[in-house]
Amino acid sequence: MDFIFMLTRDDRTVEDCLDLMDLIKPVGLKHIGFKDVGVSPLVLASLVEAIHASGAISYMEVVSTSPQACLESARIARDLGVMRLLGGTQVSEILTLLKGSNTEYYPFPGKPVGHPTKLGGTVADVEADCRSFTRDGCWGCDILAYRATEADPIELVKAARRGLGGGKYLIVAGAVTSPEKIRSIKAAGADAFTIGSAVFNGSYSPSKGSILSQLRDVLTDCQSA
């Protein structure tokens, strides 16, 4: 099970993301991501360089709400050399944009809406979407399970796993805030999860004050799940 630390708070990349890259070096994170909003493309370029220099895999999650903005974000991810692009629902258009690049694509199944994003859609919707993603050649999916408005989060993760089948990477994004949730999503078939705000606001480990302590606790729980 992989822990993807998102340099984000309230679905926006934090403005001091570059300073944070220096701060978190001692933890040795292998998966680090950010959102397509909150800082300029120039800052994102420096951030991607810093993530790769640390030896981690880079992730960018699309939270832009208009189709045009989502496609522009995909172009930015491709041009920056982001390793894994998460989110969006315009699968064929984004795969076309990424063709020939080294950027893998993991779209949102279901019906994501708004910002911060909520997830509409049923278990059947999610499973069907994930089957379609597999046929289209995606590397997996990014599901906002704990932001669901119509279905049980764990049932959605199970549906995504069924739809993707084996050999595809299933990421659970948003509101993974406890060891219990980590264990639950792993048992349901997830390969990875993202956490951002729960680290920054200290709610993952409420008795500790350091971001480094929060990150180490998440990694420990991830390894023991």
Relevant terms:
single chain; 225 residues; alpha/beta; TIM Barrel; eight-stranded parallel sheet; 9 helices; 43% helix
The total count of strands amounts to 12
Number of individual domains = 1
CATH topology tier name: TIM Barrel
Q: Main sheet, how many strands, which sense, barrel?
A: 8 strands, parallel
Helical stretch tally = 9
Strand line-up of the largest beta sheet: 7-6-5-4-1-12-11-10
**Could you name the CATH homologous superfamily?**
Aldolase class I
Gross CATH architecture: Alpha-Beta Barrel
Element string (H = helix, E = strand): EEEHEHEHEHEEEHEHEHEHH
Overall geometry comes to globular
Give the CATH level 1 class. Answer: Alpha Beta
| Strand proportion | 15-25%
**Overall pLDDT level:** 96
Oligomer: single chain
Query: Uncertain spans, ≥5 residues at pLDDT below 50?
Result: none
> Radius of gyration in whole Å, from Cα?
16 Å
Structural class: alpha/beta
Structure description:
With 225 residues, this protein is an alpha/beta fold. The protein has a single domain (2-224), classed as Aldolase class I (TIM Barrel, Alpha-Beta Barrel). Helix content is 43%, strand content 20%. It has nine helices and twelve strands. It has helices at 17-23, 41-53, 67-80, 91-98, 123-136, 153-164, 179-188, 197-200, 211-224, and strands at 2-6, 8-9, 12-13, 31-35, 57-62, 84-87, 104-106, 111-113, 118-120, 140-143, 169-172, 192-195. The strands form three sheets. The protein has an eight-stranded parallel beta sheet with strand order 7-6-5-4-1-12-11-10. A two-stranded antiparallel sheet has the order 2-3. β4, α2 (41-53) and β5 form a beta-alpha-beta unit. The model has no long low-confidence stretch (mean pLDDT 96).
